[in-house]
Specification:
Elements lengths: L7 E4 L2 E2 L13 E2 L3 E6 L11 E8 L15 E10 L25 E3 L3 E7 L5 E7 L6 E5 L26 E8 L5 E9 L7 E3 L5 E4 L4 E8 L6 E9 L22 H4 L2 E9 L5 E20 L4 E9 L1 H5 L3 E2 L7 E2 H12 L4 E4 L7 E2 L7 E2 H11 L3 E7 L3 E7 L8 E5 L5 E5 L7 E4 L9 E3 L8 E8 L11 E8 L1 H7 L3 E5 L5 H15 L5 E3 L1 E4 L11 H8 L8 E5 L12 E13 L2 E10 L33 E2 L8
Parallel strand pairs: 22-26, 27-39, 29-36, 31-33
Antiparallel strand pairs: 1-2, 1-6, 3-5, 4-5, 4-37, 5-19, 6-18, 7-10, 8-9, 9-17, 10-16, 11-15, 11-17, 12-13, 12-14, 12-16, 18-19, 20-24, 21-23, 25-26, 27-28, 30-34, 31-32, 35-38, 36-37, 37-38
Length: 644
């Protein structure tokens, strides 16, 4: 069957004919069987370049694409689908601001003036946004995005589960507002190309406005946004409130809504409306982005045309072929060193380094004609990070050094009915994808447990910043080792060694602890997870957005994946299995995606609960005695408050 998820192949900015409506029959076509391979096979390795292989057929037997698709041609694979949010419910998170604490700063921004913006109870008693401009004579613009902003040029996938517009669609934006007497307010749409304030496009029309009278009014506006943008709105407020002399003589107290004089000098906003159309909204992701590395052309006698087999690789393959040289580098923060290498490579790609990894100090180095990608991978490995070649629909390709320790925790603490605190998997994970075992092909799945997977000691080599006898830098390699003595007594010595360019022992010891904490756990591994959309009869049972999240070249990286409804014979005796996505082989065949996922265990990875996140009435003697201190790595806050 044909699924609602498309596969579009673009070469040098042109979509390759694939049988879609409107394509000439004489055009070369993309044959079924496109494959994208990405990611890493273990939690220690750095991922190699992602690859995309595809085959084209020119049934006319001409040269067709042979002169246009060559080594170096740009290749992009896109998948999209229509998603169907309720057209009567605002897609904005907490549109009435009821979840925000009174006095807190709401998830919006102020432009063209300054104002104090907080959540507050309006005269009606309902929670609303209170706007108090600093200058009563200046207009201010309040921008309301569809989801909270993230810092500029970070986390491009922050809004990936928020629907975007499709071409020609009619959306509705609106808001309820209390405007002071003598004031004026209007709303206009805002279109976002990314989840950042600086990615907003403001338009002057269409617009709808209202004069203030101190009462609540609802403003709504139909808009037709450009294709592929997130939709929000802007509220322009001017002026901010009346002086006594500005109040029209005909306005009396009994004509106004209940409240005080101070309420008349303030603007309140509530009940934000951003409605997707009933015919659905577009959700589009980039699955692959790179360049053709090799091609093979041959005559297909059966088809009576020319076949072209092509392979493309992502941009990190290019970085692997760029050598850099420079004056010796002094010891510096890992983030600064990472950006220095990228800049010297001449590559025009953006970079994101997770905050906890940014300040770790790396060694003095005399770089002399070294491969750029090798240096970048050494830096990521040194801080127990992963350098991912990510690609986003609006930002494009970029390098992201991810901190696996910052992933969402997949295990939590829970007090059972017997009053014992245990570590249990959770199905409520921010950004997580939940898949039923019924949505996974049964035959390839294997459960594997191997003592060779277990590490009892982690050795990390670092570079002491010593000087030679002439006073010049001459770093000395040293080693720090983290050991689990109990596990080593039971299994013998099982060692993993990692070479780093860290410049001090404390950072090296921290990395060793992280490695040992992640690799010391003996657990069942699951492999052979394949989600084949060709076998999905009802896409309501396997939400399209979840498959798109796994296809997305940004959000799939380290994505939490909770496998539910496990059969009774599954090891562990539980019905849920928390995992992280580390890679995969994605095939598009006969109109359907089949995702063969490479996953890692959710144990001992991700964020860890802080002391102040534990219920105050829990005591140490209520914890399961089998829980050790190291077992709490990657375990999040409890899912219940207080004792059961």
């Amino acid at each position: 069957m044909t699924t609602p998820l498309t596969c579009q192949l673009w070469v040098d900015g042109e979509r390759v004919a694939d049988g879609a409506a409107g394509a000439p029959d004489s055009d070369p076509t993309a044959l079924s069987g496109l494959t994208v391979t990405w990611g890493r096979s273990t939690t220690v390795d750095q991922p190699p370049p992602a690859t995309c292989s595809f085959q084209l057929l020119d049934a006319q037997g001409g040269r067709g694409f042979l002169d246009t698709i060559q080594v170096g041609s740009m290749v992009r694979v896109v998948s999209d689908a229509m998603v169907y949010p309720d057209p009567t419910e605002s897609i904005v998170a907490d549109p009435s601001f009821e979840a925000a604490a009174p006095g807190s700063v709401p998830p919006l921004s102020v432009q063209n003036g300054t104002a104090r913006v907080t959540t507050a109870a309006a005269a009606t008693g309902a929670q609303a946004v209170l706007v108090e401009p600093s200058n009563a004579d200046r207009a201010v613009t309040v921008t309301i995005p569809p989801a909270p902003f993230v810092p500029a040029n970070t986390d491009p996938a922050a809004w990936d589960l928020v629907p975007t517009s499709a071409s020609g669609q009619r959306w509705t934006v609106g808001i309820s507002a209390l405007i002071p007497v003598g004031g004026w307010a209007e709303i206009t749409p805002v279109y976002f190309s990314g989840p950042w304030q600086n990615a907003a496009t403001y338009v002057q029309s269409p617009a709808v406005g209202i004069a203030g009278d101190g009462a609540w009014h609802t403003l709504t506006l139909p808009v037709v946004p450009p294709s592929g943008y997130w939709v929000g709105l802007a509220v322009r407020i001017y002026p901010t409130g009346p002086d006594w002399v500005d109040v029209p003589p005909t306005v009396t107290w009994d004509t106004l809504a209940d409240g005080s004089w101070s309420d008349l000098a303030r603007t309140y906003l509530d009940d934000v409306v951003v409605l997707a159309p009933a015919e659905g909204a577009l959700h589009s992701v980039v699955v692959f982005d790179g360049r053709v590395s090799d091609t093979t052309a041959s005559w297909d006698q059966a088809a009576g045309g020319v076949n072209l087999d092509a392979t493309a690789v992502d941009f990190t393959s290019d970085l692997a072929n760029r050598d850099i040289a420079d004056d010796p580098w002094a010891a510096e923060g890992m983030g600064a060193r990472f950006r220095r290498v990228v800049a010297l490579s001449g590559a025009t790609v953006d970079t994101i380094v997770d905050p906890a990894l940014e300040p770790l100090v790396v060694s003095w180095m005399d770089v002399d004609r070294q491969q750029a990608m090798g240096l970048l991978q050494d830096l990521a490995q040194s801080v127990d990070g992963v350098v991912w070649p990510a690609v986003h629909a609006t930002l494009g390709a970029y390098l992201w050094v991810e901190d696996p320790a910052a992933r969402a925790a997949l295990y939590v603490l829970e007090m059972d009915a017997g009053g014992v605190v245990r570590i249990v998997p959770t199905t409520v994970v921010t950004g997580g994808v939940s898949l039923s075992s019924c949505d996974v092909l049964r035959e390839p799945v294997e459960w594997v447990q191997d003592s060779a997977d277990v590490v009892t000691r982690a050795a990390v080599q670092w570079l002491d910043q010593t000087l030679d006898d002439k006073g010049y830098p001459s770093p000395t390699q040293r080693t720090v080792t983290a050991i689990d003595p109990v596990l080593e007594a039971a299994l013998g010595t099982r060692r993993v060694s990692v070479s780093t360019v860290l410049a001090n022992q404390a950072d090296a010891a921290a990395v060793a602890d992280k490695l040992l904490g992640r690799l010391r756990v003996s657990t069942w591994r699951v492999q052979g997870l394949v989600v084949d959309t060709a076998y999905v009869d009802d896409f309501e049972s396997i939400d399209t957005t979840r498959i798109l999240a796994l296809l997305d070249g940004t959000s799939r990286i380290g994505r939490p994946l909770v496998l539910t409804d496990l059969p009774g014979w599954s090891p562990g005796g539980r019905t849920e299995l928390p995992l992280y996505v580390e890679g995969g082989k994605y095939d598009f065949t006969d109109g359907a995606w089949a995702l063969a996922l490479t996953v890692s265990s959710g144990l001992s990875q991700g964020g860890t609960v802080a002391w102040n996140e534990l219920p105050a009435d829990w005591s140490w003697n209520e914890f399961d005695p089998d829980i050790s201190w190291s077992d709490l790595g990657g375990v999040g806050p409890p899912i219940t408050e207080g004792k059961s």
